[in-house]
Amino acid sequence: MNLCNFEAYLAEKIKPMPEERKSLNFIEQIIENDLANGMPKDHLRFRFPPEPNGYLHIGHTKAIGISFGLGEYYNAPVNLRFDDTNPAKEEQEYVDAIKYDIKWLGYKWDNVLFSSDYFQQLYDWAIQLIKEGKAYVDSQTSEAMAEQKGTPTQLGVNSPYRSRSIAENLDLFTRMKLGEFGEGEHVLRAKIDMQHPNMLMRDPIMYRVLKKKHHRTGDTWCIYPMYDWTHGESDYIEQISHSLCSLEFKPHRPLYDWFLDQVVSPTHLRPKQREFARLNLSYTIMSKRKLLQLVNEGIVNGWDDPRMPTISGLRRRGYTPAALRKFVETVGVAKRDNIIDVSLLEFCIREDLNKTAPRVMAVLNPVKVIITNYPEYEEEWLEAENNPEDATAGYRKVPFSRELYIEKEDFKEQASNKFFRLKLGGEVRLKNAYIITANSVVKDTNGEITEIQCTHSKDTSKKVKGTLHWVSIKHAIKAEVRQYDRLFMDESPDSHPEKDFMTFINPNALKISSAFVEPSLKNANIGDRFQFQRIGYFNVDDDATPNHLIFNKTVGLRDSWAKQKSKTQPQVQPNNNRQNPQRKAIDIIQKLGKKYTNLPEVKQQKIKAEILELAKQVDYDTLKPLFN
Fold this sequence. Notes:
Layout: H1 3-13, H2 26-36, E1 46-48, H3 58-74, E2 78-82, H4 92-104, E3 111-114, H5 119-131, E4 135-138, H6 142-148, H7 166-177, E5 187-190, E6 205-209, E7 223-225, H8 227-238, E8 242-246, H9 253-263, E9 272-276, E10 279-281, H10 288-296, H11 311-317, H12 321-331, E11 338-340, H13 342-356, E12 359-360, E13 362-363, E14 366-371, E15 379-385, E16 395-401, E17 403-407, E18 411-412, E19 422-423, E20 427-430, E21 435-443, E22 449-457, E23 467-468, E24 471-472, E25 477-484, E26 510-517, E27 529-532, E28 536-540, E29 550-556, H14 560-568, H15 585-596, H16 601-615, H17 620-623
Parallel strand pairs: 1-2, 2-3, 8-9, 10-11, 12-27, 14-22, 18-19, 20-23, 25-29
Antiparallel strand pairs: 4-5, 5-6, 6-7, 13-26, 14-17, 15-16, 17-24, 20-21, 21-22, 25-26, 27-28, 28-29
Helix pairs in contact: 3-12, 8-9, 12-13, 15-16
């Protein structure tokens, strides 16, 4: 069996998984079990509960995708509920931005709700707990309460105010609501167990005094409920069947259940909290506090700066809803935290834009080419394919003339045979046009090449190895190009306790330059996406005007960081120990083949390439027994 036949065999064996829904993740399995145990399907209801204290980022797309994705799959309603219990940090601007982002991703909510809608009910329930002796007003400082709470290995001790009478607690809590006390003077705590092994159960705070104006309720309230008290009770009010949270809330689940125990009626559905691993991305930070620091210190130009991992930043950079949803689907739902390589996100946008983005020509670092045997005043409009991946995309006309721009790096006076671009005496094909030969150059007083003199041939049937993009000088449009790169140089910039994450800022995360683009882009609209051929994917920035085009680089055609990373990694020395002989290629192929179908598509492509490379080491005698 020759290599071609072996590749055909592999292609038959290694088929992509069908598009139908993959095996159930653990959350779906929980839901299926609940349905199997008698829960009516029309009782399913989910929610996405962001706090409006910042813009949504790439990490939120997973939580959004899980909740809204379940809603789509089960045809169940999904509430968008804003957890607005901290007026010191929350603003209407963030509410509007979050709603816009979710709509842009293509999801639809059933109701827009706010935790502040339930302030009166939460207060009434708190009064009920005080009357039942399950809550009390504590008048200590936060430092004293923290000390009494103990540690994971040291039991807590009771507050001296834990034994206050119900009457005194009701009086103080009512006066807290009326604004008679300042911030920090009193808090309301649940009376649970100061010696509980879970520190969250050691008399958690339910209410604190905050004399801040609320973005919805104004000055109506000056006491605000804590998240743990608000979370489960809001789920119960809305009759959420499955309350899905990221993994850091798993220790909160006993408290979630304890609070529910105090108010749930046996005739109403009881919410169930379950946790999944949050999305962490390499070369990225997800902390809203740290993202706000980047904005406030002017490291980036706002929440929608294309270097930011916010959904608005990714949108402005040229990312599509389809790419982000595919990314979330590929990452999947896990029970353990891990870090996803940002190259997977970049792969998803490349795959999407490769199918949808029109191809155009743009020159970012120009050098002039003069075609000496082309008539000086002549011009042609040549046909160019818009997208070879889309048969319906059609064709456009691009102008050709005597004077062109090509990229400086696409020419060398002298070069080896491995340089397939333009060199003196060499030929290349101009994309959608003719074959040219470089004959001479013109240089300035510094020895820099200012002009390459070429001749052209209209015999385009000739085979040449290199193809270059270009633009006609007299037709080209000058544009601004903003080339964005990863904002941090470290894979995990906020994982170094001894260093400030700001020390890892990439100084080359933004490069602004002028470029020349083909005239078909004159009427490009804000948000339009294109492939600059041989360079990467770009989109029209929000700052662009009809008289000043601005393009943002979304992603390159290839992963340039992978190449840099491989250069910096130490070379692995071959193992010459005879006790550890090298494994046979066929054994590795068989092992890789067994796990192939269970891998996400991006890894399948890598494995397939590895198998095809290993196949070159497999001879006929090795294969013969496998095929009888």
